[in-house]
Backbone:
């Protein structure tokens, strides 16, 4: 069974601070996705990274896929209250033939004004 | 395009009862997956349907079942409900033509078993 560990589980910071969320596994994934979920809603896809070492930027969010495709990180610069939410990483296993993602348990981020 | 819709949004059932949840995917998406989300276990994969066939299945007991119709709409059924089945049930559709299995989630059905 492939497992994804996210850290930290909870993060409470002040507006304007920077933060990094980590997603680690001992398994190799063919791609990795990041989602954000707000209360009462389903997760919303932020980005997909596919190539080892790949870096993608989405405004103040920077996503990186590890060279070995076993880990990923999400860095937020100058966090804003609107960034508050549950951040989930999800890996697509190499042997998977269908839509079966392994999700991390999530990082609950709170950005205080 | 309209997003993924799920009905009902909230449901309260008693132990031993059964429940059916419904999901309408984004138009053109043929893959529909179901997930269970709980505070302790996070998001757990239940099963995936593609072209009316179950293509993948997670590690849940046989009380959890699903199906997909020719218009890609999907239902999941839980029989003989247990207290531990209380959770947010999320449906997601995917544009499999992209090969990336990116999931587009609905808002979920909050099931409470008493």
Residues:
């Amino acid at each position: 069974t492939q497992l994804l560990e996210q850290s930290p589980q909870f993060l409470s910071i002040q507006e304007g601070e920077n933060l990094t969320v980590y997603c680690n596994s001992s398994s190799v994934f063919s791609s990795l996705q990041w989602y954000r979920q707000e209360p009462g809603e389903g997760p919303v896809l932020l980005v997909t990274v596919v190539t080892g070492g790949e870096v993608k930027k989405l405004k103040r969010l920077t996503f990186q896929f590890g060279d070995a495709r076993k880990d990923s990180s999400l860095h937020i610069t100058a966090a804003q209250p609107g960034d508050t939410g549950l951040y989930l990483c999800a890996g697509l296993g190499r042997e998977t033939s269908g839509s079966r993602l392994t999700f991390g348990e999530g990082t609950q981020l709170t950005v205080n004004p | 395009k309209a997003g993924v819709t799920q009905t009902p949004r909230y449901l309260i059932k008693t132990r031993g009862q059964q429940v059916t949840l419904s999901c309408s995917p984004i138009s053109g998406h043929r893959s529909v997956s179901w997930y269970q989300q709980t505070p302790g276990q996070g998001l757990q994969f239940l099963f995936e349907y593609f072209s009316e066939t179950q293509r993948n299945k997670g590690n849940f007991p046989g009380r959890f079942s699903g199906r997909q119709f020719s218009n890609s709409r999907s239902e999941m059924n839980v029989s003989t409900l247990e207290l531990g089945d209380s959770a947010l049930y999320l449906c997601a559709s995917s544009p499999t033509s992209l090969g990336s299995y990116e999931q587009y989630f609905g808002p979920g059905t909050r099931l409470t078993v008493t």
